[in-house]
Amino acid sequence: MRVRFKRTLIIMLSLFLFSTMFSLGTPNPAAASTGTNSLTLDNKLISEMVSQALAKIGINARNVKSDSYKITVCPKNGNKMVIPTDKSKTVTQPVPQPKPIPTPQPSPAPQPSQPVQGLSADEQQMLDLVNTARSSAGLSPLQADLNLVKLARLKAQDMIDKNYFSHNSPTYGSPFDMMKSARITYRTAGENLAGAPAVDIAHTNLMNSPGHRANILNANFSKVGIGIVNGGPYGKMFVQMFNG
Predict the structure, then answer these.
(1) What's the pLDDT band for 102 if we cut at 50, 70, 90?
(2) Which of 54, 156, 183, 216 could form a disulfide with 229 if both were Cys (CB 3.0 to 4.6 A apart)?
(3) Residue in 193, 222, 198 with CA at minimum distance from that of residue 209
């Protein structure tokens, strides 16, 4: 008896719900091309429809409750009612974002040293280039020594006057002889020579020569004297005298 009653109730409810659904309005035009149409009935409307259906068979449905039902009309496949049976919730776990990789900041370019009183513009420029190269190599800057500057200028002028290009001067001897004669003491010393029309060209040529580069980047040197004189076959004559 209970089984027959349940089947009768289900059949009547289904017929009433479908007949009510078709009387609610026309299908959605946007879905016409797909052959389907969707209609969503909210809780209040479903409760009223179910109450009316139950009332026809003598059942008081005052407290009937319903979830939200979605009724889909499929002309090709007939009518289909989809009733949700699961109220499970989906929890979205946030995807951990990778930590940004810090962009390495370039080291600030070495600032030109304070102009040394007694140096020409060319000599100051070459001093700055030398100390920039040393800074890039992690070395301390060289201090300009005006006594060495004087010797370097004498050597540069002597090479122009005597038309030679050598570490040994026919007038002054070796750079070590010149330092000794000027009573300049040192533990280690060296000399670079160059001929070029401009300071930057001379510096580049010296840095591209292993022996001259080694003098510029020698960690044992602490002082330098730079002498630059206009003239000679290259346009300018450059002399660098180092000691430490």
Answers:
(1) low
(2) 156
(3) 193
